[in-house]
Each structure stands twice: as C-alpha cells, then as structure tokens.
Fold:
Amino acid sequence: MNFFSIAAGHIHCAQCQAKSKRTQVQYRAPAMPRKLRNNLRSYLMPALHYLLLLTTLLVTTHVPVAAAADPTYSGRELFAKSGDAIIELREVSIPGAIKAGQASGFLVDDSGLVVSNYHAVASHLFEPNLYGLEYVRASGAKGALEVVAVDILNDLALLRAKGLPKAHLSLDIRLPIKGTRGFSFGNPGGIGQSVVEGTFNGLDENSFRDIIHFTGPINGGMSGGPTLLASGSVVGVNVSRMLNDQLISFVVPAAAVKALLDRFKVAPAQTPAKLRAEIAKQLVDYGQRVVDSLMVEKVKSIQLDRFTVPGVMSPRQRCGATIDNSPERFYVLETHECRLASDIYVDDKVSAGGTNYRHQLVRGNGLGAIRLARAQGSRMETLVDQGKAPVKHFTRWSCESSNVELTGMKARLVSCVRGYRQFPGLYDMRFRVASLTSGPSALVSSLAAAGISSADGARIAKHFLASIRYQSID
Structure:
C-alpha cells in the first residue's frame, strides 16, 4: 500500500512526489459543495472553540500529580543501611557486669536517645543497686545506658547513651495496611544482629491497647528492636510473640514511640525513684480505664437456672463455658468465665490491669441440701494462695467475709486484698459470693482484679454484685 500524506485539501502519494523529466503528476480533491461546507462549519466551529478553551485550561491550571512512591529496599539493603542505628541492650549484674538479660534497641535521634522495651529494663528500675544497663554495638564497642522515660502501658523505654554514632532511624506513625511487607531487626538469643521478613496484619482486635499483629518470627532477644517498612522507616517496636503458635508476633506502633519522645521533651531525664513514681501513676490511670470499660449500663446477662449473672461486659473480653457431669461427682458443675485481655507487664513476678470473673452453678437433683452446700462450699475454699505471693512485691492477703443482700436472695461474700510494696495505693482484689438459697442448685461467682486502686476495686465489685439476681418460685 502506498504512503499517503493529507494536507490542505490535497492528497499526495509519496511515490508520486518524485519528479520525472517528462511529467509531474498531481491530484486535486474535488471541490466540496458550498451548502455542505457551510453546515460543517456551523457544527465544527463551536467544537474548535471548546478545544481551544480546554487546551488553555490544561496549560494554565495546576494538575495534581501523584506523589512519588517511597523508596523500597530489600532486607539485605535495609540491614546494610540500618545496622549502625541498632544495638544490643544488656542488663548486667552489679558487681561483676555479668549479663543477666538481653534485648535490642535503636537510635531515634542524633543525640544518643535509644528506644527499647520497658520489660528489658524493669529489673534495673526496681533494683538499680543490683542491675545495670549497657549497650553493645555490632563492632563490639560497649557503653552505659540510662533510662530517661517509660511508658509501661505500651511496654516502651527511652534511654540515653554516649559514644553512639549519629546514625538514627526515622519514625512512620501511619498504621501499615494489612498485607504490607515488613522487616524486624534484633539480636535473637544473643547470636548476632538479624533481620526477619514478615507481614503486617492490622491491630490485634482483642487487645485492650493498640498493638500491631505481625506475622513473622520475632524471637527472644529481639524485644525492643525496630520493625521497618521497605522504605526504611520504623513503623513499630518488637515486643512479644504468642507462645505455642507459629509466627504470631506483636509490634508496638510507632505513634506510641512519638508520644513518649514528646513527653520526654517536656519532662526530661528522671531518677529511678521518680520513674517508679511515674510507673505507679500510669498503673493507677490504666486501672481506671480498665474498670471504666466494664461499667456498662446494660450488661449482657447469662441465665443459670434461677440465677441471672453478668456475661460479656466488653467487646474485648474472651468468654467460654464448660459442663462437668462426671459420675463420681454426684452433681453437675456448669462454669462460665470471662477474661479481659488487659494485663500489662510490671516485672517477672507482677502483672497489672487484668480482670476476670467466673460463675459456677452446682446442680444436683436429689443431692440433698447438706451435700449441695458442701459441694458449693468447696468452690469457696481456694480464693487466694498465700504461699505464691512474692514477699518483696506484695503484702499478705487480707480477707474478710460477711452476709450480703443481693437482688432476690441472701449470699455469703468473701473479699480479699493485698497491696503492692513498690506502688502504694495499688492493690490486687478478689471477691467471691455464694448463694444462700434453697433448691436443687447453688451459685458461686468470683471476680478478680489486679493492679487497681481501692476506689476502682469498690466500683467494679459493686457493679458486679448488682448484676447478680435470683428469681424464686412463687
């Protein structure tokens, strides 16, 4: 096929443009009828004006352009770029400087501020005469660390060091979209700095605090290390993994790190004693939040024979039920239990903020009042265990019992409390109530709350007991 160019009403054949000595061939298009030409002009001229206006707008108006995507790096590249900003954190005995614990951390500015986990420095905070802190770089260089701020709720600690490089990591406080690739750094088992690839899977929906579910193997020793996006920014801090499950790990969001840094700028370095007082305040405030979350006006109730008892009080609670009808018991034991996943680490022997309650219905048709009461009484005997309370952390349990009036029935109430030696004004509390009714069934309900104030303990106990009712047969 010949190549044609069309212009100015003429059609030229490319092969025909060659001039011969004899002839030059030229083809002219036939003239367009005037009426048709005028009609086309009336339609085409407005369109041409519109196109001219649109072209002007495109030239003179700013058209948004998508921002350039963040750079992406492989795990190997991130390891090479970030290595100088990541350290091993060691808890060492005094004297002797023998390693007693090991975790990870990372630099967040060029002044020597290091982020790690609170649980990695807890022994030093409570026993500074027995435990010290030091960092170890990949090169083997060591130096002392000083704790300057803590956030016990999010298991974060801010430390200051001298002799560390200016290199530091930047924070990205945006929550990663589910399925985003991430890289966790740390020193697992003290065998050397490592990088682990995984996937972000949003916030843990059952946790009382914001914590990111990271599908990847965050192992012991990696606590306090950074978890990075492929861009190289820190999106979270390694904190824990779920035991007995594969690759279910958790990361504290970078937003909590930023909040701790901002607070430190307002109230810089504190002594261990002042930090302990700050921890006590944080625990009291947290206990109040936990109790507030359970103080719902309309409790979802459970019906156990003629007893109405509180069921789910919070969407974050995990509840379950069992029935034990073993023949040797001569009665049926039905148990309902709800637990709020709100415990936070204080030290190896202490956790705070946890709450749980349990209802046990004893049914024994033809069992007799005495044997039924004996079966119910056995449920009341193990409210506390004095032998398991670490003396250096807690006072001894103090218990008292009394008869109380609940809705529709009389009941026997046992209340126990113990104090925290390190945190005056903070208590563990246990309550257990047994129905004093006649009939083929009996109820024992228990409530436990850890690390709360006496006022909050009284609030939740009153709310719990007010939700227990008995409907007698007329």
